[in-house]
Amino acid sequence: MAPQRAKARASHPQPQPPPQPSDYETDAQPAVDVPLPPPRSNEELNFSVLRRVYPELLAIEHVTPYAALYTFNLETQQWEKVGVEGSLFICQLTPSPIGAERYCAIIYNRRGLENFYQELTSSDEMEISDPYVILQGDLVYGIWIFADPPPASTANCRVETAAKMMEIADRAKASREAIEPTPQAVEHDEAASSAPMGRQLSLRELFGQQPAPAQPDVLGQLFMKAKQNHNGLG
């Protein structure tokens, strides 16, 4: 009878423990410590984002946390907000074909997909009149720059940004004139002086001429109204 009991036990093997997951890959390959990339600064992140949109970007010269864009309506003599608001970047671009330095102003829009982009070529194309930095482009643009009241750290933001934009524009002009041959500069001046009556007015012609005594000071009234409405601009 004993052999029969042994046979019965042999026909019902004992349950085996479940197989353990293989650790072959860990054993086969030595562990390698891959260092994490160093954290990037805000300036590096901003540059990376802007460079995707503007490949000619070389460096960010100045950043203003918040600015809003306006255009000047010649018919109504009023500033009109255009829905472009966000950080203002003053940037250096790749040199021009003749090797001159180039710079631009960019408002990276938080309100929509369309940013503001304008090259800064000369301070002659700019005017500073609180609360706007005025630029001559396809239209007459006014950039309103946010600044907290004193003694906040951003109290001088508007003045500092305006001064930086003028400095950058003059740097671009000086670089261009140092390289540009004199005959071309003369031809440019002659062409500008002989432009047809339908040509675009310069900022100095638009804002710099003094009105006749019998005419109202339209620009003075415009900026006075802008100052009165200053608190509602942002």
UniProtKB/TrEMBL annotation:
Per the record, GO CC terms? P-body
Q: A GO molecular function for this record?
A: mRNA binding
* Gene3D superfamilies (alphabetical): Pleckstrin-homology domain (PH domain)/Phosphotyrosine-binding domain (PTB)
InterPro entries noted in UniProt = Dcp1, PH-like_dom_sf
Carries keyword Cytoplasm?
yes
Which keywords does UniProt give here? Cytoplasm, mRNA processing
By its UniProt entry, which Pfam families does this protein fall under? DCP1
Family statement drawn from the similarity comment of this UniProt entry: Belongs to the DCP1 family.
Name of the molecule in the record? PH domain-like protein
Give the species this sequence originates from: Clathrospora elynae
The taxonomy runs: Eukaryota, Fungi, Dikarya, Ascomycota, Pezizomycotina
